[in-house]
Give the backbone structure.
Amino acid sequence: MDRRDVLTNAFVDELGSHTRSQNNFIQAVRHVARDVLTIEKNDPALSNAKVLHRLAEPDRILSFRVTWESDTGGVNINRGWRVQTSNVIGPYKGGLRFHPTVSVDILKFLGFEQCFKNALTGLPLGGAKGGSDFDPRGRTEREIMRFCQAFMRELAPHIGPDRDVPAGDINVGPREIGYMFGAWRKFAGQYDGALTGKGLSYGGSQMRVEATGYSLVYFIQAMLEQNGRDLAGKRVAISGKGNVATHAALKAQEAGAKVITLSDTSGTLYAADGMSRDLICWVQQRKDAGEDISAPKEKGASFESNAVPWSFEPEIALPCATQNELTQIMAKDLVDSGTEIVAEGANMPLTDDALEVLNASDVVHAPGKAANAGGVAVSGLEMSQNSYRRSMSAQEVDNALVGLMKEIHARVAEEGTQDGRIDYARGANIAGYRRLAQAIQAQGVL
Ligand code: NDP
């Protein structure tokens, strides 16, 4: 065991018994701890300030009951949470997820990741995450509206444009943000940018919907440019069929790549010669309508039940669905078939043993906290637009996004370059840590 592992194990042991069963949170903390604890231990000012300890213990975890009525008049009860991890560099900022698997463990991991991601953007954004174990599947439009309103009734006292600014995540898109913003406006009795991802007619930013998926592609383009290469003609496999996956697919297709897969929990849509824009838009429409993608009418595309995208020999793999979706055996498939880049659109989509397989190979791995940071970056631009009471054009936002992703790439490359090779995960962890550490030290012991 090397020094990094010894320090990491000791750090995790000190986290306290309340974290013991929080496997996703501990997994996320370990990734960062391995890269930054040697820096912290070698600098007495940082170790005395206990920087990583302070980031690994959220400022607070709000937990509340959400009571709402179904169409038939039945009373339903869900749990809601907001994990406010750190506001040391800006107001708490991070998405809301509605999914039966949502738990304190999942939200603590996402809030922790969010702190480092937001620090990497260079914008004044703290880290948070929230959501509920509510399952929107099979629910009617009006039930979803009532749930969103009931959720916001509980969350409203804790958010605000300079306090905590939630956005979307899994199963929380423009529709849910619209319902929650309407409820916020009524409960708070004021009109401001307390949520991002809003519709364009009421304070949203151009390009927010597209930003996460597009930014993933901009980040890969920056990676390829390092070696004078580009995306044209590359076989790109993408998992998921949601916001991040389909916008990454559209941007990659536009850049001349062959998008060979999209997927959901029942299987993979495969197109050997690459998907057309029409086919990707069809997937978006089906997802929005709550319908499956198992019957594509386009020639050359087929749906393979229970298959995963990683068995189709991509040159570039973009996991864009959920945490721990890409396992060791799938990583081996990618390495064996000559995949060059794995870049994360989802947050922490690789299991630890999948990561080990990639790290032992020539595959270049870009972590989500760098590669998908464009979503929150455009949320940051939405907050500025709301404060200034102005709106930027789509072109302005897109130009800003391209610039931000290049800057993030440069920050990560600067910290992560060793022996002429960029370790993107290490670079992202260290660059994010340094900014957070400076702010924590400057603001004293609180
Ligand atoms: P969406 O709700 O829009 O879509 C998620 C999709 O992923 C669903 O269609 C779901 O399929 C599918 N999915 C879930 N698990 C699997 C799996 N194991 N294999 C294949 N497909 C699966 O979510 P988003 O696109 O918003 O989020 C996706 C990821 O990106 C999450 O990790 C999120 O945290 C991250 N992210 C999102 C940002 C955003 O701006 N939205 C910002 C940064 C990160 P099914 O329909 O079958 O359930």
